From TrEMBL:
It is found in: Membrane. Its main location: membrane. It comes from the Eukaryota. It comes from Allacma fusca. GO terms for cellular component: plasma membrane; receptor complex. The keyword Secreted does not apply. One of its GO terms (molecular function) is transmembrane receptor protein tyrosine kinase activity. One of its GO terms (biological process) is cell surface receptor protein tyrosine kinase signaling pathway. InterPro entries: Prot_kinase_dom, RTK, Ser-Thr/Tyr_kinase_cat_dom, Tyr_kinase_AS, Tyr_kinase_cat_dom. This is Protein kinase domain-containing protein. PANTHER family: FIBROBLAST GROWTH FACTOR RECEPTOR HOMOLOG 1-RELATED, TYROSINE-PROTEIN KINASE RECEPTOR. SMART domains: TyrKc (SM00219). It holds the Pfam family PK_Tyr_Ser-Thr. Coiled coil: none annotated.
Amino acid sequence: GMSKEKAIAKDQLIVSEVILGQGACSVIYREHPNILRFAGAVIERIQSGTFLAVFEFSPFGNLHDYLTKYAGNYVSPSSEEDLHERIPPVSAGSELNMNLNPSVLISFCKQIATAMAYIAQKKVVHRDLAIRNILVFHNNVVKITDFGMSKQLYEVSNYKVQIQKYEQVRLRWRSMAIESLRSMEFSSKSDVWSF
């Protein structure tokens, strides 16, 4: 029969070069509303051990840049009641994504926590959860990305990075848990620390 292909607009995609064997792409890029969607791959250079991974496009960029850009639009609650108003569901929010208020910020936190709970359930450790690795979409939806340093935990609840004498490992120490800094141990608990 005929194959069903879905056309995706060029401006809706991000192309990223990924080295085979790194990360937990095959495990983590499933349909979850708060994890960046893996759209496909180009395998022309698979002989050299690389392929191009294609991801959905984030119209508002990463959360760090987004919060910096719209910090002036923060709307402080006028009373204690406003602060405790109904927290919007994961997909709710302003289409224009320009007004920041406590409900929107709490919604961001809730979405990130939901995605991290999902990957912990799949026994995957992200190892690089940082504000720059959260992307912002329409309707105040945020999604976790950059699983390049992630690792699947099979039989153990944590794992220790073994660094060889001449091996270079790029770890971002500012968001690392104490046990990760001291002994290079990573777990879903160290991901929570990063969050």
